[in-house]
Amino acid sequence: MANLKRIILVLVVVLGPGSIIYFISKNVSNHFVKPPYLGYEYTVDENGKRIDSTAYTIPDFNLQKFDGTPINRDSITNKFIVLSTIQNGCPKTEECGFSLFHFDEIFYHRLVKNRKNYGNVRVISILTDIDGRPIEHPSEKLLEEMKDYDTSGMWWMTTGDVTPFYDFNFYGDRFINYPASKEDGEIGAKAYTSSLVLIDKEGHIRAVTGAKSDSDIRNFFDILKLLKKEEFDLERAEEEK
Q1: Is the pLDDT of residue 12 over 70?
Q2: At what angle do helices 214-239 and 2-15 cross, to 10 degrees?
Q3: Of 66, 103, 123, 174, which has the fewest Cβ atoms less than 10 A away?
Q4: Counting beta carbons within 10 angstroms of the beta carbon of residue 60, is it exposed (0 to 12), middle (13 to 18) or buried (19 or more)?
Q5: Number of H helices, E strands in the chain
Q6: By C-alpha distance, which of 193, 102, 195, 108 is closest to 149?
Q7: pLDDT per residue over 137-175, tens digit each?
Q8: Beta-sheet strands, E only, within 93-174
């Protein structure tokens, strides 16, 4: 029960109480929380009344890995995606949208170490300036810094348009428009530049958090674990049919 309370607290802090969707089973040993779907798109009638809603799905996109390999919507089918931006000024905290050290130690290292469980998870980092504008070419400094991270093939460092990933409804606005918070150590003008976004296997957004602090990154990994449990339960249910 203590673990359940911790998970609920994580989701409330990270996602806000208004967006929490969870259920608790009758069997205490199987208690769990289901991460919500974010970015709902609404259909309204002529009077402005909502008549339908659908969870935001990442649309078609075209990215290119640093080595020239194209990445598109088909590339992420049946994969969980951890999305970030990355800047040529990394790993300097004031020039980088997320903490490379914390992310590697707390998150990415665990993915690589536990490939058996996280083999269908990919990290996608899109190269931008500090304000989130796409940059076509990584610097030699960044290439040198990152070459040791992508040895597993689970981290895709890319260039291309960020819009398909961040232009979703988020608490009354589009997430791509949210201003950065200097108090939270975010760089540039836009919050998404210093964020982590979790996308499920169907292309739905399931979590958004900051990318600077170790606590944010640790909590984000907890949410990924919940999605993996959701995947496991669905697969087991299919096998039992």
Answers
A1: no
A2: 120
A3: 174
A4: exposed
A5: 7, 11
A6: 108
A7: 999 999 999 988 877 899 999 999 999 999 999 988 999
A8: 121-127, 155-160, 169-170, 173-174
Place of tokens 């409804």: 169
Rounded alpha-carbon distances, angstroms, from residue 102 to 106, 146, 218: 6, 14, 9
216: left (phi over 0), alpha (psi -120 to 50) or beta: alpha
Structural domains for the chain: 2-54 (no CATH), 62-233 (3.40.30.10)
Kindly calculate the radius of gyration of the chain based on its CA atoms and give it in whole angstroms: 18
- CA 27, 31, 32: angle at the middle one, nearest 5? 150
Whole-Å CA distances, 240 to 26, 30, 153, 181, 237: 20, 17, 33, 48, 5
The residue ranking higher by pLDDT, 31 or 131, is 131
Res. 23 pLDDT band, cuts 50 70 90: very low
